[in-house]
Amino acid sequence: MSDTPSELRYAKSHEWVKNEGDGTVTIGITDHAQELLGDLVFVDMPEVGDNVEAGSECAVVESVKAASDIYSPVSGEIIAVNEALDDAPETINDDAFGEGWIFKVKLSDAADLDGLLDAAGYDATVAEET
Amino acid sequence: MPFIPHTEADIQAMLATIGAPDIDALFDEIPPALRCGELEKIPQGMSEMEVGRLMNARARQDGQPLCFIGAGAYDHHIPAAVWQLATRGEFYTSYTPYQAEASQGTLQLLYEFQSMMTALTVMDVSNTSLYDGASALAEAVLMAVRANRKSKSKRILLPRSLHPAYRRVVHAIVRNQGITLVELPFDMESGQTDSLVLEQYAGEDFAALVIPQCNFFGVLESVDELADWAHANRMLAIAVANPVALAVLQPPGEWGEQGADICCGEGQPLGAPLASGGPYFGFLTCTRKLVRQMPGRIIGRTVDLDGKTGYTLTLQAREQHIRRSKATSNICTNQGLMVTAATIHMSLLGAQGLERVAAACHANTSKLVKVLSALPGVGPVFKGAVFHERVLRLPLETKDALRSLAAHNVLGGFDLSADYPELGNAVLVCATEMRSDEDIEQYRSKLERVINARIQTPCQLKPDW
Amino acid sequence: MLIFEKSRTGRRATAQAPLQKADLEGLPQQFRRRQSASMPEVSEMQVVRHYTQLSQKNFSIDTHFYPLGSCTMKYNPRASNSLASLPGFLARHPLAPDTHSQGFMGCMYDLQEMLKEATGMSAVSLSPAAGAQGEFAGVAMIRAYHDARGDDARNEILVPDAAHGTNPASAVMCGYKVREIPTGADGDIDVEALKGVLGPQTAGIMLTNPSTVGVFERRIKEIAGLVHAAGGLLYYDGANLNAILGKVRPGDMGFDVIHINLHKTFSTPHGGGGPGAGPVGVSERLEPYLPVPMVAQDGEDYVWLTEDNRPESIGRLSAFAGNAGVLLRAYIYARLLGRDGMHRVAEFSTLNANYLLKRLTDAGFDAAYPQRRASHEFILTLKRQARELGVNTMDFAKRLLDFGVHAPTTYFPLLVPECLLIEPTETEAQDELDRFVDIMTTILQEAQNDPEKVKSAPHDLPVRRLDDVRAARDLDLAWRSKAKGER
Fold first, then answer.
1. Confidence label for B461 from pLDDT (cuts 50, 70 and 90)
2. DSSP class of residue C59?
3. In chain A, at which end, N or C, are there fewer CB atoms within 10 A of the end residue's CB?
4. C102 — contact with chain B (CB < 8 Å)?
5. Can you count the helices (H) and strands (E) in chain B?
6. What span, in angstroms and rounded, lies between the C-alpha atoms of B332 and C326?
7. Under an 8 A CB cutoff, do B317 and A62 touch?
8. CA–CA gap between residue C209 and residue C160 (Å, rounded)
């Protein structure tokens, strides 16, 4: 758990958010989440151009025996999705915080970021769950 | 005690192990006030011999009339091997193949079925069946609505020339999800979907166009144009096809420029007896792109720990036992045994055999239509080419004609007057490869008598019924 | 080897298609297929041998003990098959006139009546083709009932967290939201939690009783009272009806609508995953909404009830009359059993389950609900073994296969960790149950002494554990001829 990157922000539902500093963020699921799910076989991604609300379901990650919704931690417009995941969903298993990013959002309200957890806060949430 | 193997000594020994005085004590958690009585209205049990006597009498009661009804269920030859193999206990009494290692027989067979259905329809992927053709179409409609993420339209274009029961089933299944079905009229001359009317909907937002080939009247639709029109108007093309007809008809995967997106239909012509309407099975194939929207079981080929080829249920995360309220459908049990029969049936016939069956059905129906049309007042209603069914006009009320024919043990076809009053005295007839020339002559001569009796001036001779 | 790989161009089962090839003169070229479908080209004997050999790779009730919880894998009488396959039944066209259908319709009418009596409901429709379609029909009727009263703000169906996945999926297909109710530590529904969520938005609740955790819901009457007081209706999922057939009836418990899995309780075959049949029964107030068709008696004659005479029906769920052949098999089974036989179904399935539970707990296994009586099935939890020995439920399940026993249901219901749901059914003899206990004991010893043997099981089946991840990532769903390649 000490591996939780400190430069990212987190949602309780196990998404991470990277502030790109230009009004956009990159979103993925945490290493802890990919571990719980096991080998991922598919990622159902949102469409570029869709508008998402903070807390709404906007993608699904699938393993053989489970499927888990991904909730957008912020509101805004989807500006990119990680198309490499179409052919290699296992990238999330291998590098959840890096190459395994899932989508990017152009923020409609930067204040959404303030409500998110920092690394320590997220680690505490995980510790509570287990 | 039918099928219960316990001896009195077994019962006592088992109760002693449990530590219960009698069997009734095992129900001590059920509040006594809820316990039911004797079930008086249920008759006493019978021996197999007695039940056999009862069922033989009931089966005989229905006779085995000469059948010229199609209308969604077709009387085809079924090779003896089909049901002898399908009712082997290992197929007949196994369950859904969740334990793949103990179910390789069923799993490989289902993979072969998927392969055959994709070959026949020329689509990328197939599931392992739905309940019947009508419910398969309902699921196809739901798939199309789910897949339409861009506009999220919940409207579907559905021709009036589609089987009336299918239209009712689709309505019953999708209506609670706010989906609207818009009915397209048919051209009274050709019997095809009216392309002029279709044009009125150009540019409107629909999730899919349903294209039956052939339609309920047996008439062949201009599928290339319809599929292209659907795609040009940003909707999916859903084919509804008869699998035997597909042996000779252009496969949905090749309709128009892009091919249909989803193909579904009634699998009954592939080895299922008429049997009062079921069990049959619905088939569903689609493009690769839509595979995750598909309902029902799907089998994949993979390898085991030693690298040996094996088969397993796959893409299960779509299904209700994992996805619960977000599943693609609530279906779990499908029509596995019917698919077992169909796979064996298709193996025995092969493409060549199915083509021969299809051609024989086409030729027999043509013959029937020709022979009957020689009778006064009888003739085809539509000009469009047909596969193995045709609508005939009769010179008397269809209901009366069919009733009189039935009294002669001839089932003369499906009465269209309730579903299509605009067609007047019309009957939908079908002669599969099972109907011989003598059968057709039998129909003709009986219909001739019926017509003579009802239409022409009273005959001097008294009819013999 | 696939049947396709046994193919040779030009080979056929020549006896099985018309000897003469008719021409297609009336079929304009534009409609025709240009290239024959890529189907196997094999002889009749090759087909018979291929599928006989495939069948031998299956476990089945006829060949193996099959204690698959919640599936009721009991003996499927051969008479049900042979009598339902009499030529008169097989030849009947679904649209045959009533004059040529009285025998079949008589069977359906009798079956409706018997199911009414067995379940305590006031009317039955046989048409749903499977349990899930029965659920759909049931929830659709609940919706139709509320809608007809103008009570259309109800948008929520309640299901226990232990419910089968079809329950929430069916509710959603009927346009409802789903809210889960927790299960208490004793296996019964948490009634206090239920009280907290009932309200004017409640359309109904879906329950299985005995529940999916294998125990009888003791406060069912109280639950029925609470739900009815809130204006909701109660749906009974008949998955576990085998446990109570002839002992207690869903109608008497206060349920408004039920489905019955005939492929469980009335012993029609599971067929490798269907066909099943899921007739629905209702209390009086839901009668108008039953799916069509149904059979009624008119004097001496049987007549169909269809959309024409039942305008408030939720409609038709299959093109014809559902899985008629399955219904006939269930009818034959019901006539063989009769009234007394039905009482004994619950008695002996319960006796077998409680005996097996006692013997297995004596052998060192843990019951998930040790303080409770088993119904016709029960749950063991292998949590302790998984923690102490590193051998989990899946490993036990796979090892059982090596001993010629089909695995019980694993990892369902989800709320019990490392669970095995075991349902022996009434048709198994004590000796078979004892053999199962011996095998479980042996596997437990193996797990202690040679865990690798269990973890790498099965060893003696046609294949070892399969790569499910590869199956889902690199989808291979249909054979393609190598010569022709991808289309």
1. low
2. -
3. C
4. yes
5. 13, 15
6. 17
7. yes
8. 11
Nearest to A67 among B149, B150, B323 (CB): B323
Buried/exposed code over B312-349 (b: 16+ C-beta within 10 A; e: otherwise): bbbbbbbbbbbbbbbbbbbbbbbbbbbbbbbbbbbbbb
Q: State residue B320's pLDDT score.
A: 84
Global pTM? 0.96
Question: Within a 10 A sphere around the Cβ of C452, how many other Cβ atoms?
Answer: 12
CA–CA min distance C410, chain A (Å): 13
Find residues 143-162 of chain C whose CB sits inside 8 Å of chain B.
143
Report the run of H or E that residue C472 belongs to, with start and end: helix C468-473
What residues of A are in contact with residue B148 (Cβ under 8 Å)? none
pLDDT band at B333 (very low <50, low <70, confident <90, very high): confident
CB contact, 8 Å: A68 with chain B?
no
Reply yes or no on whether the pLDDT at B462 is more than 80: no
What's the pLDDT score for residue A130?
67
Judge whether A99 is closer than 8 Å to chain C, CB to CB.
no
What is the model's pLDDT at position A12?
Answer: 93
**C230/B461: higher pLDDT:** C230
Specify the pLDDT at position C484.
Answer: 45
Residues of B in contact with C55 (CB under 8 A): 85, 88, 90-91, 105
DSSP state of C370: T
Contacts of C73 in chain B (CB under 8 A): 93, 95
HEC assignment per residue over B300-316: EEEEECCCCEEEEECCH
Optimal mutation site among A62, A64, A90, A94, interface C, most CBs of chain C within 10 A? A64
Q: Cβ contact (<8 Å) for A42 and C472?
A: yes
Q: Which residues of B touch C343 (CB under 8 A)?
A: 39
Mean pLDDT in chain B?
95
pLDDT of residue B324: 84
Q: Pick from B109, B300, B127: which is nearest to C471 by CA?
A: B300
Of C352, C406, C409, C344, give the one whose Cα is nearest residue C379.
Answer: C409
Q: Which residue in chain A is spatially nearest to B150 when comparing CA positions? A: A47
The mean pLDDT value for C82-92 works out to: 97
pLDDT of the residue at B67: 98
CB A101 within 8 A of CB A27: yes
How far is B152 from chain A, CA to nearest CA, in Å? 12
What number is the ipTM of this complex? Answer: 0.97
pLDDT over 60 (residue C153): yes
> What's the helix, strand, coil split of chain A in %, to 5?
25, 35, 40
Residue C245 has pLDDT above 90, yes or no: yes
SS3 of A41, please? strand
pLDDT tens-digit map of C358-371? 999 999 999 999 99
Residue to test with chain A: of C469, C474, C477, most A Cβ within 10 A:
C469
Q: Tokens 């009247």 belong to which residue?
A: B217
Query: Is residue C486 very low, low, confident or very high in pLDDT (cuts 50, 70, 90)?
Result: very low
Contact B106 C272 (CB under 8 A): yes
Each residue of B18-43: b (16+ CB within 10 Å) or e? bebeebeebbeebeeebebeebeebe
Structure-derived torsion over alpha carbons of residues B54, B57, B62, B67, reported in degrees to the nearest 10: 110
Contacts of A69 in chain B (CB under 8 A): 326
